[in-house]
Each structure stands twice: as C-alpha cells, then as structure tokens.
Amino acid sequence: MRLFYALLFPEHTLRELISIQNAINPYLYKGNATRKENLHLTLAFLGEQDEKLLPLLSSILDALPGKEIEVTFNHLGVFPKKGGDIIYTGIAYHQRLFQVQKTLIALLQEYHVVFKDTRFKAHVTLFRRAQYEEIPSFTPCISRASSIALMQSHRVRGILTYSPIYSKILQ
Fold first, then answer.
1. Residue 39 pLDDT
2. In DSSP terms, which residues pair with 59 in a beta bridge?
3. What is the pLDDT at residue 171?
4. Has 40 been annotated as catalytic?
5. Tell me, what's the pLDDT at 146?
6. Measured between alpha carbons, how far is 89 from 127 in angstroms, rounded to an integer?
7. What pLDDT was estimated at residue 56?
8. CA distance 150 to 83
9. In the chain, what are the domain boundaries?
10. Is 12 a catalytic residue?
11. Which of 40, 75, 94, 154 is catalytic?
C-alpha cells in the first residue's frame, strides 16, 4: 500500500484552495489541477508499506497531539520538474504544525518504520505538470486543519485517489 500522513482541511478551506486554483488557471499553458478531494498537506510520505503495519501506523497517529492546528496559506511557489512544474501554496511557519510533523517523524523512527525522511516543506499541491509564463499573487488566507489522517494513494477507475484509512479529529 502506498501510504502517507496528511493534514486535512474543512470544506470551506477546500473551496478557498479551489478558488486559488481558478485564479492561477488562466496563467497556465498546461497543467493538471489537484482534485478538491485530494487537496491536503503531507506530513510524512511513507511510500509502499505492508498492510500488516496498519495497526502500528494507526497507533502512531493516535500518539500525536490532537490540538487544532492553524495554517496560513501565504504564498505560491514552484517545484521545478521535467515535463512541467508543481505549483503549490506555501504555508507560513506555525510552531504547532512543525512540532506535530517533527513528533511524527520521531515516532516513525522510534518504531523503525522504513520511509524516506525528506526535508519538510509545508505546502498544498495545486497543479502538477504545469507550464506557464508567470504565476499571479494571491491574498493570504487562514484556516484550521480539521484532522490528521493516514492516507492511501491509489487509483480508482484510473483516477488518482487519496483515501483516509485512519484519522484523528483535531480539536
């Protein structure tokens, strides 16, 4: 199973992210927008994992703090890629967000879960394979994450789908 941990957002935030996509779209020659259902902030990408690890991975999620996390979407950025860039909305530093992510990584390491630990860059991917001349600016917005989830990345009838396997509501 291809797995990752993600911060998920309430419906009104997803609508706001879609409106940012809609504002960027006229500037693109080409690009694949992230479907609303797939918009999230990745806390840790685990890659291919054995299904037998699901109880452990769920218990790690349970061990994370459950306090609400506020995020500020404050800029647009680009990860250059051959064949088209990734356009994302970046998130301002917020101590609770970065502490949760750091705790998650420490727990994964403590329980010897094998994954590629990369430098954390808080963002939400808006477009993949994007080609453009320029990217517009946008007005920053603030939201509160609604939950943290262990997610599966898979294809459903040929469509990339991110499905929550186990989640924890943030309060």
1. 97
2. none
3. 87
4. yes
5. 87
6. 10
7. 97
8. 30
9. 2-169
10. no
11. 40
CA gap 89, 112 in Å, rounded:
32
The architecture that CATH gives domain 2-169 is Alpha-Beta Complex (3.90)
Say which DSSP state 143 is in. E
Contact at 8 Å (CB) between 77 and 90? yes
pLDDT value at position 111?
95
pLDDT of residue 117: 77
Question: Which has the closest alpha carbon to 153: 47, 69, 55, 80?
Answer: 47
Q: How far apart are the first and last CA of the chain?
A: 29
d(CA 57, CA 72): 28
- Those residues of the chain that have pLDDT short of 70 are none
- SS3 of 55-116: the string is HHHHHHHHHCCCCCEEEEEEEEEEECCCCCEEEEEEECCCHHHHHHHHHHHHHHHHCCCCCC
- Which residue type, as a one-letter code, is found at position 50? D
